[in-house]
Design a protein that fits this description.
The chain is built from three helices and ten strands. By secondary structure, the protein is an alpha+beta fold. The protein has a single domain, classed as Immunoglobulin-like, CATH 2.60.40. The longest helix has 19 residues.
Length: about 140
Amino acid sequence: MMFGAAVSALLVSLCVSTLAHAASLEVIVSGVVVSGAQPAGKVFGEVFSDARSFKAREQPSARFALDPHGANMVRTTLALAPGRYAVALFQDTKGTGKLEINFFGVPTVPYGFSNNARGTLGPPGFDAAAFDVGAAGTSISIALR
């Protein structure tokens, strides 16, 4: 019984410690496609902390989904540990919940990356899209294309 209480106390301590060291990342997205007066779908995004996960689009540090309400710009604020990150996002205009691509691997829905980075014959590399989140937090803007 003592061991369980000690483990619980340690876990709570680690969670509180992690939250105390969290910084905020504000992501502002422009270029949201609207159909009539309504947005044409949610904006989904992932935040990556290293080149391997960014390239593979696996194991993001954070995920978010934004439900635009008639505006051409949406924003969200995430809590992350200070560090270097890159963001990839897309607007789900087809309602599938995933990034739609054509035969050549080119997205058929609006998409974007942090730093508005662009790749050559594919997505940009981590370094092109990477930015730093300091202890005071940061704000980035991404224009969908």
